[in-house]
Every structure is written in C-alpha cells, then in structure tokens.
C-alpha cells in the first residue's frame, strides 16, 4: 500500500473503533447500572442495550446512498454528529427511558456504508482488500476492547461517564475525517461498495443470501440477549462490576485460539461442518446458562463456548455473503446483511427484555437455545462458499474497443462464474474461479495493459 492508502486505512479504522466503542462499551455494564434509575424495568434494559440496532438497520442503506449524492465525508461527519448527540442525551438522562432514546439516536449515525465507500475510493483495485481488511480487524478489535474498558470506565465515571466519553470521541473524529483521512483519489466501482435499492429486493429473494442474513440477525440477537442477563449473574457471584474485565479477558483470548482452530479445519474443506459446530456451541452455551445455580467456573466455560462460536460465525458469514453475491452486487448484498445484523441486535434486546419482564430469567436463555435449533434447520441446504472464488472490477475504456465487445470477449474466458456489465460506469464486474481464471490475460484482451 502507498502512503495515501495506509493513512486512509488507519484513520478510517480509528474512526470506526471509536464509534463502535461507544456502541459496545455500555453492553457489559448497563444491566447492572440501570438498577439505579427510577423507572427501571427489564424491558427498558433490553431496549437500552439493543435500541441502537433499530436505527442502524433502518438507516444503513439510506446513509450509504446519501454519500453518493452529498459526498462521503459530509455524510460521515453528519453521522458522527448524530452519534455524539445521542451520547449526550444518554449521558444527561435521569431516567432509563431517556437512555433508550439516546441509544436510538446513537444508532442514527449509521456511517458504515459511507466509510467503506470512502475506503474504496482512496485505494487502488489491487490494494482495496488490504484496506478493507484493516478496517474489518478494527471492528472486531473494538468489540473486545469495549468488553474490557466498559467495566473499568463505569466504575470510575458511571454510565454517564461512558456516554460522555463516547460523545467526545465522536466529536474528535470529525477533524480526523476532515484533515487526516485522504480525499477520494480514485473512485471505486460503486457496485463493490455501496448498496443500490433496485438490487436489494432481488437479493432478498435469493434463498442462500436470505439464510445468511437471517443467520447474522440470530447471531447478534444472541449476543444482545446474553448481555441483558450476564453482568447481573457475575455480580451475584460476588464479582464487582469493575473487575468483570478480569473474567472477560481470559475467556476472549481462549475463544480466539479456539476460533483459529475452527478456521484451520474450515480451510481443509469442512466449512459447513464448522458452521454447524459453531451454532451447536452457541446453543449449548445458552442452554447451560439457563442453569441458574451454575458455579462461576462453569459460567465462564459457557461464555467461552459462546464466544468461540460467535467469533467464528462473525468472521465467516460476511465472507460467505461476498462469495454468493452476484458480480457487481456485493455492495447491495453487504448492505442488506448489515441491516439484518443490526436489526438482530435490536430484536435481542427487545425479546430478552420482554422475557425477563414477564417470566423467569432462564426463559430468555431457553428461548435462545430454541432459536439455535431452528437455525440449524434453516442452513441445512446452505452450500459452503468456495474458497477459490474471487472478484474483480475492471474499468473499461470504450475508446479502445466497444464495451459490448469487451463483455463478449471476457465472458468466454476460462474460470468465469458470473459477469455483470455496468455501461454507465464503464465497469465490468467479474466473479471467477481463481484456479482457472487468468487476470493478466483478461486485462491484456481488454487493452488495460501495454
């Protein structure tokens, strides 16, 4: 990567980390600290934890499309301002209802699509996967960091302190976007980065993609559901909130090692089996957590099982969506996927809040285990995405040869699995089998190399 690409990747990753920290840091502490609000109820706790997912799901695609009209940076800054306002509302809240409102406002700062589009704009085609990978790693890192920092910050500053910190962090990201993130140097093909409303409806009708979308919704529903109850369980085991990070740290580290083992086995042609195993781990952990008298050691083992399955699916489901999406429709497929992901977080908070409000606490875990069993049935016909599939977007020059001739020429090459031509962009989107396809030959035939 050149200096522009590296600076862009690191600065956009920083924006993402600080924003996601604000969404996630309250998750491991809110269920405990919410007890101090006069209008406390399990339902409001669930909505406060997962409420951000509702507006994220609703605005993820529109904000991405808006960045095509207004520009990437203005939309990112707008999202950061909305996020900061929501954080300030939650920080000043004297009732749990206003915390819920603040969380919903936080979610309105849905800038993921615009950030990814800008990352594509500032990177060359052959370096774009590296830039996206850096940002993707940052997203995962932010979740782990939030679980460790949330309890520590809550002990010193309380819930208001966490929301205040996230508001300041969001505002500090604005000069970072304005002065550090590079301006667009070369515009990436929009089909690779941004969703298009005309595509989303058709992609939702694709059974394989729909199964993956429902899968990520269930995955994040389980995550939100767990954090509505888990922190209080740990406090009941005589672990004060400020020390919860000591429990989370070894669990997360061990789960990363276990996930790496699953991924190694997946690369040996066992991808579908590893997906089944991960869902079984989630179901087992949820079922075991329904055991209210479980000792602390057993509870931590259950958490390890959960995060092992969660980490594997969180890393692999997006790759499967990318593999299955038609050529030139990756942006739309990932936009729909992200919307399902955030809606799942909201649904988890709502469902767990309702179950904890009107029934015994263990019923939320039993419900989650049942959802996992239904999930196994949902994916039984899901094929494993081929690890050999790759995607390319070739910018054409109609002055060299007519675009339709280019399409006909490349479509006859070995290894082509799917091809889409967008004439108004002069871009040819390819999904190919890397074992058969020769990119250099394709570029030569299209006159893209001398």
| CATH structural fold name of the largest domain | Growth Hormone, Chain: A
- Helical/strand content category: mainly alpha
Provide the CATH architecture of the largest domain. Answer: Up-down Bundle
Q: Unreliable segments (pLDDT under 50, ≥5 consecutive)? A: none
Report the β-strand fraction as a percent range: under 5%
Main-sheet strand order equals 1-3-2
The CATH class of the largest domain turns out to be Mainly Alpha
**Helical percentage:** over 70%
Question: What is the end-to-end distance?
Answer: 23 Å
User: Would you identify the CATH H-level superfamily of the largest domain?
Assistant: MFS general substrate transporter like domains
State Rg. 23 Å
Helix-strand pattern, N to C?
HHHHHHHHHHHHHHHEHEEH
Q: Could you describe the largest sheet, including whether it forms a barrel?
A: 3 strands, antiparallel
Outline: globular
Number of strands: 3
How many domain regions?
Answer: 3
Please count the helical segments.
Answer: 17
Main location: membrane
Membrane topology: Multi-pass membrane protein
Subcellular location: Cell membrane
Protein name: MFS transporter
Give the secondary structure arrangement, pairings included.
Blueprint: H1 3-24, H2 30-33, H3 42-50, H4 52-70, H5 72-92, H6 96-107, H7 112-121, H8 128-180, H9 190-193, H10 197-204, H11 207-236, H12 244-289, H13 296-324, H14 330-358, H15 362-378, E1 389-395, H16 403-411, E2 416-422, E3 427-433, H17 439-445
Antiparallel strand pairs: 1-3, 2-3
